[in-house]
Amino acid sequence: xxxxxxxxxxxxxxxxxxxxxxxxxxxxxxxxxxxxxxxxxxxxxxxxxxxxxxxxxxxxxxxxxxxxxxxxxxxxxxxxxxxxxxxxxxxxxxxxxxxxxxxxxxxxxxxxxxxxxxxxxxxxxxxxxxxxxxxxxxxxxxxxxxxxxxxxxxxxxxxxxxxxxxxxxxxxxxxxxxxxxxxxxxxxxxxxxxxxxxxxxxxxxxxxxxxxxxxxxxxxxxxxxxxxxxxxxxxxxxxxxxxxxxxxxxxxxxxxxxxxxxxxxxxxxxxxxxxxxxxxxxxxxxxxxxxxxxxxxxxxxxxxxxxxxxxxxxxxxxxxxxxxxxxxxxxxxxxxxxxxxxxxxxxxxxxxxxxxxxxxxxxxxxxxxxxxxxxxxxxxxxxxxxxxxxxxxxxxxxxxxxxxxxxxxxxxxxxxxxxxxxxxxxxxxxxxxxxxxxxxxxxxxxxxxxxxxxxxxxxxxxxxxxxxxxxxxxxxx
Amino acid sequence: xxxxxxxxxxxxxxxxxxxxxxxxxxxxxxxxxxxxxxxxxxxxxxxxxxxxxxxxxxxxxxxxxxxxxxxxxxxxxxxxxxxxxxxxxxxxxxxxxxxxxxxxxxxxxxxxxxxxxxxxxxxxxxxxxxxxxxxxxxxxxxxxxxxxxxxxxxxxxxxxxxxxxxxxxxxxxxxxxxxxxxxxxxxxxxxxxxxxxxxxxxxxxxxxxxxxxxxxxxxxxxxxxxxxxxxxxxxxxxxxxxxxxxxxxxxxxxxxxxxxxxxxxxxxxxxxxxxxxxxxxxxxxxxxxxxxxxxxxxxxxxxxxxxxxxxxxxxxxxxxxxxxxxxxx
Lengths: 477, 329
Description:
A: Glycosyltransferase; transferase (chain B)
């Protein structure tokens, strides 16, 4: 059905349209003088901050469809600000704490908006995750102590199904996302116990598909968002070795397409938000799976001739701009954002949590070309995905120069994509480092070194320093 | 309730609501992420809160939830309350399916809608199976990869039945778009779980033939490659020893283009004990047109070497795979 050119399928047609756009960006980049290149690769920090701070205060009428997701909006914005190494002033911080306290349910957990004494919005696992992560990101005593851990524990327990998995809310949907948000919250608040853990690993295991990735429910398709959630959950409950990690890795490594960005599922379109969901999977495996992780880095990649410093290598290859991004490709677009009255917002609800969208690469062999030619030159610890190609996609194709980040060219910015594109950018900058405390070498950061973002704890996706403060706080309280 | 927004009479002026005191949202004195709500939205939600607090499960409450859902189909509390009302009123659930369909047309990627639909269909039981399969078919005709629609469809098959034509449905979708990985996934679901088919073992031969054909038509299509591997899940020995598997790799290699997945599968085969004939060695040697170095005697290493160059996006991965190869494959 519906193919305009006789032999192209919908997947192929959509993919070639996206590829055209991306190719155009890269061609423009290749043709401009070095000074302009430098500017194009710059992270527009000031504009992003302005966009984020405006959103934290006031949102237009088109945001009515996100009315039951306001803690999410807080998290997307606050985490983005923290990734940029910025903070908000004390007044705004107090207002945020007050607002989130109003979303906290008297019986535990957080709902999608303020509910005060009488239940007006039920608590929900996803908004509980968003609120807790927001408060950790704000990070002082007042913020952390506003969380009623005892009640959250009871709420989490009440969301647990007899089969071990969790439901999003009272009689709500049961899936891997629910398992992750529950276990993540419990772990970071130091209230994770055997009762919460019981059998959740069996459920996650039943969701690993024949492709290697993890699906939302048993039987459905392997998907970047769910794979991240499933893997992070298994790490937190110490059962990661039950997964078939070799196949999982093989699946995720193929999700990086010719564009440099990641797709969410096989043969889908690239989407900036998967920079985190898929890119974060590499960070999880590297950091938290000791045996697998240790050998997952290319240590002094052996074969190296070390003729150039890594920095020169990266920069020169990028500016060579030999992007022959051809290759047969296909696709399937996904509306991650909707435009209403000239404003672009993420589409309602947790549909944004894991945009089911993403890229595709009908992997012709002619891929790549985005990265450095002489492979043997590399002499640094490198991650198993192409972190420079990912950064290039994020900076050139996902960045709105006016502030905010987005899915792909022709799409609009929104807070969800800003959060997950920046999270992915942070992961791709820091994944070269030996351990989480060392700063990346300049060669690991595409563009000016000032592009460097704060490192994150990839399991919870909060800035590392704040995570540690929270860990310490909840260990003693 | 179907009236255009422009003509909407404020609820405060509707006599049937005169006994209700609207309950405004308490955002606090100086809230963040403050939404500039449309007036209709605010009013509807104020009345909704009042009824929800009073737990009024009445026909007017039912129609109010409908309005609230139209304003924001992502409000899970409203949907939840709607289910409670539907139960209390013992409402006609076929009508409810029609309502959901209208909402879903413009919001087909929203968890709440699909969760609600599942609840309603579950209440209706096996009678709803055909209608639900039709409904998901309709949604999939607009977007053949809609994740929620596929989840729902799988739930319908398992909970309500209707497996009979499912393999044929997959076949049709794959005929339209052989790159549709969701359809491949559904095919796997049917083959492994349908009570009418013989399971993976019984279906393997015919499925392998189908998949090999798809691979030969588009060797750059990742979906059938992953599917092929999946057909031997939990039976790695058969996968390694089945000549149909190694021969499709060899055939694709001999075409000398779009062979990344063929090489990748061959590498996996070698890692699991596959013993390659001289033909394989020659085919791989032939891929290295401009490489001055002699072909590595270790075929696994040679494959990684080729992949590092032709699949440069994953160069690091192939280098890593090379370092992890079992000794002397």
